[in-house]
Amino acid sequence: MCGIVGYIGEEEATPVLVNALKKLEYRGYDSAGIAILGPGNEAGAGHSLVVRKAKGALKNLEQRIATEIIRGTSGIGHTRWATHGEPSDVNSHPHTNVSGKIAVVHNGIIENHAKLKEMLRESGVTFKSQTDTEVVAHLVDYFYKGDLFEAVRATLDRIEGAYALAFVCENEPERIIAVRKDAPLVIGAGKGENLIASDVTPLLEYTRDVYYLNDGEIAVLYRDRVEFFDREARPIEKKTSRVEWDVSAAEKGGYEHFMLKEIHEQPKALADTLRARIKTYATKTINLEEIGFDASWAQASRVVISACGTAWHAGVVGKYALERFARIPVDVDVASEFRYRDPIYDPKDIFIIISQSGETADTLAAMRMAKKSGARIIAITNVVGSTLAREADLVMYTWAGPEIAVASTKAFTTQLMCVYLIALKFGHLRKVIDDAELAKNIEALEGLPALAERLLAQKEDIQRFAARQFHKTKAFFMGRLFDYAVSLESALKLKEIAYTHSEAFAAGELKHGPIALVDESTLVVAICTQTALFDKMDSNIKEVKARGATVLVITWEDEKYFDSAADEVFRIPRTLDPLSPMLSVIPSQLYAYYCSVMRGNDPDKPRNLAKSVTVE
Ligand code: F6R
C-alpha cells in the first residue's frame, strides 16, 4: 500500500526522505518519488520545488537523484501501489498543479475523483496522469489565494474517500501540511526538525516522540514546531507519545529476510503476549482487565469476530476455541463481507476485531458498523496508536513487535494467543472449564514458546522437503477443526509468497468436489493434530494417495499413526490438541518461505501485495 513521508529541518531532505521510504518498502509499492523545496533548485533565485520520480524499485529513483541532484531542507516523498492508472513515472507521486508550485502525496482513494476531474477540466486544467490523486493538486491550486492552509481546507470540503495527504508549496517553503481521514499518518517530533510517515518505523532514526493524527485533523509542520487544527481551523492541543520499540527490532538482525526473522521471533512474541496476562494469586489465572473482562461478560449470548486475511484465520481458530472452551455461539466473518451483508446485531454481542496493522480499511469499516450497534468492541492489534486501537472500546495488544514482511507470521500466532486467552477466561467465567482445566491450559500455553523454539530447530527438514517440492504448481492443505483453520492460513502463505496455486479444505469436504483436481502433480499437506479425528484423516489421506498425490503429514512428534500412509511426516512438539494451531502453522510458514526463496521470489515483498491494505 502507498507510503508517505515528509521532512522539514536542517538536513538535506533528499537522503532523509529516501531513507524513510526504504523503511516503508515492506508495505508494497511499484514506483516512488520525492518533491524537494530548496533555494535555487533549477529556477535559480528564490525557493523552488523540484520533483523526481521513477517507476519500479527505489533504486531507480536513487539512480535518478544521483545524476539529477536536488538540494533543499524540506520535502515530501511517496511509494505508490497502483490503484488508478498503471505503474509509470507519470502516475507516480508527488503530483503537482499546472505551474508545478504545489505538490501532494497521497495514500488512499479519492472516490469522487471523476466528478472533480470534469469540473477542473472545464476550468482549463490539463491532466498529466491517470491517477485519482492529481485532482487534489489541481484543486488546492484552484482554491489557492496565497495561503496553503486555507486552500487545503477548502479542498477537504470537496474530496470524498480515504486519504492521508501531505502538501508543500513553493511560495511557503517554511511549512508542510498534512491531513488524514481513514488512512494512517504519524508525525515525528524531532529537535529542529519534524517528520511525517505512514507509520512509525521510518521516524525511529530521528525521534521517538510522535503525534498520532486523528481523522479530520490538520497538521502544519514547521522546522521548530508542529501546529494542529480541526477542519474549522480551530487550534488543537496534542501531546506526543513515546515509541518504545527498538530500531533494531525493525531491522533484519542477520537473517536473510524479515520473514525468516519474524518466523524465528515467534517463541519470544508468544511469551511476551502471554506473560503480560498471566497473574499469580493463590493460583495462576488469566488477567484481562485491559479488555474490561468482568462478570458482566456473562450477559453476552454471542461473540462476533471480523477481520481480513490472516487475521480472519485467527478469527476462525477463535471460533473453534470459544465454542470449545466457553460454549458460546460465535460468528466469524471476513470484514469485507460483514460490512455489506446487513448483519444482525444485538447490543449484548461481544465483537472481536482482529488486525495486525490496525489500519485495514474493511476491518475498520466493520468495527465502526459494529460500534453503532452498541455492542462491546474489543480490538486485537499489534500497532499501538493505530486507528483500530484508538477507535475500539477496548484493546488487547499482540506483543509481536514490528512485523515488516508482507506475509504475516508472528502477528498470526500472537493473535491466536490472544483469542485463546479470551476463550479460556470466558470458559472459566461461564463455568464450562473448572479451575483445574484452566490451570492445565495455562501451563500448556506457558510451555508453547519453548516448544516453538524446539520446532524451529528442525527447520532444515522442511527446507529439504521444500527443495524436493517447490516446483509443484498445485498444493492442497487439509485438516479438521483447528487443523482446518490452520490449513486456511497455510494455503494463504504459499499463495502469497511462492505464487503456488494452493487451496485449503475441511478434509471431509474433499470428496464433495475438490478431489476431482487431485492427481500425481498435487502436493497434499494433511495437518493432523486432533487425535479424536485421526481415523477420519487417515481415510482422507488414503483417498488422495490413491489418486497419486504426494502427502506430507504434520502431526505430533510421538505419533506413529500416519507413518505408513504419508510420503513424509513432519513432527511438531506435543501440546494439548486444541492449542495446536500456535505450533502446527509454523511448518507451513517455513515451507512457504523456502519455496518462495527457491522459486527466486522475494518473500518479504511479494508481487501485487501490500502490508497494510488501507483501501477497499
Ligand atoms: C497475509 C496477510 C494479510 C493480512 C490482511 C489483514 O499474510 O498479511 O492477509 O492478514 O491484509 O491485515 P491486518 O491484520 O493488518 O488487518
Which helices and strands, and how do they pair?
Elements: E1 3-8, H1 13-23, E2 31-39, E3 47-55, H2 58-67, E4 74-80, E5 95-96, E6 102-110, H3 113-122, H4 134-143, H5 148-158, E7 161-169, E8 176-181, E9 186-189, E10 194-197, E11 209-212, E12 218-221, E13 226-229, E14 235-236, E15 241-242, H6 258-264, H7 266-275, E16 278-280, E17 284-286, E18 303-307, H8 309-326, E19 330-334, H9 335-338, E20 350-355, H10 361-372, E21 376-381, H11 387-391, E22 394-397, H12 410-429, H13 435-456, H14 459-469, E23 474-479, H15 482-498, E24 501-506, E25 522-528, H16 534-546, E26 550-556, E27 568-572, H17 581-598
Parallel strand pairs: 18-19, 18-20, 20-21, 21-22, 23-24, 23-25, 25-26, 26-27
Antiparallel strand pairs: 1-4, 1-10, 2-3, 2-4, 5-6, 6-7, 7-8, 8-12, 9-10, 9-11, 11-15, 12-13, 13-14, 16-17
Helix pairs in contact: 3-4, 4-5, 7-12, 7-13, 8-12, 8-15, 12-13, 12-17, 13-17, 14-17, 15-17
The protein binds fructose -6-phosphate.
